[in-house]
Amino acid sequence: MRIYEKYFARQVYLTFVFILFAFSGLFFFFDLINELNSVGHGNYKFGYAVLRVGLQAPSRLYEIIPVAALISAIYVFAQMAASSEFTIFRVSGLATGQALRSLLKIGVPLVLLTYLIGEVVGPYTDQLSERVRLEALGSAVSTNFQSGVWVKDTLTARLDGEQVTRFVNVGKLQPDATITDVRIYEFDKQFKLSNVRIAKSGTYQPPGHWLLKDVTDTELVSVPPPPNQPTDALAPVYRASQSALPEYSLRSELTPQILSVLLVSPDRMSMFNLFRYIQHLQENHQDTQRYEIALWRKLLYPFAVFVMLVLSLPFAYLHTRAGVVGVKVFGGIMLGMSFQLVNTLFSHIGNLSSWPAPLTAATPALIYLALGLIGLKWVDRH
């Protein structure tokens, strides 16, 4: 790196670290206040609340990094403009395009840091945070339905290749990924109910098996109608045979990673888990719009750091009389907050309107990138 690039990078990184931890402390305080509502229930004490909020900190860092990059760069450039340092750089031959390229180089480590936190650290600590809370409360995860969560599981038999369709009802998902109050309704290729299994609990045994315990297995066989009577498709007759089993190994495409979407919202899942869950939904012919948007947002969000840095560069060309440093920093905060709001708004609108997921995820960044380039061109001319 050139001397002026090292100088820019040192100033931006030092300010970035300070702003990042300042915002993190602020969000930690607000999250802790929100978590106090659960303190006192079960074994959930204040120490667990602090631990839970601390484990959520990496996800907060992931959300804050682009905004912190914007504010730190604006602050540095506003200080340089106020002391005429940037004017000296320009007189020495620093062109606008050259300054932009140098600034984007500074953003590369921040983009990599965002990917690291968003893909490795954040998803793991978020799941761990939910498990700490659930275990302390002595609770389990289920959906808003009183019957629990319903999952479709399509399986191809290994021997004859016949496709089996199951609808799995999980009453509760424990923090350790153990499932309880399980009901499995199995249909043949004609979509006729062929088997019903009810189990008290189940644990995953890789690869691709669930060990169900205390199982009641009910097999249904169609009974042909008596001679000279037509078959009534609306009122089929079955012969049921029931057996009780202490254990039953069930082959299934469902995994704890797929069920773990109940512990963490799609925006806080890793791209790998999102991709696997989208594949599962597609194989079962279910809607994937929400998760595709979340996947593309995870893929493109780290590049928002570049967009924020482009937005910050025009502030270096504003002279001191155009506004004090504090006003410029406040403007940077408003820009960063508006980007987060527009990004969230487009996700909801894209989900409701069934817009293409890549377009939904990329549009906010493209809008702000265009604003940054327009602003940079305007200040360069004036």
From TrEMBL:
Pfam families: LptF_LptG. Signal peptide: none annotated. It comes from the Bacteria. It is a multi-pass membrane protein. The chain crosses the membrane at residues 12-30, 64-82, 103-124, 299-317, 329-349, 355-376. It is found in: Cell membrane. Keywords: Cell membrane, Membrane, Transmembrane, Transmembrane helix. NCBIfam families: LptG_lptG. This is Lipopolysaccharide export system permease protein. It comes from Paraburkholderia tropica.
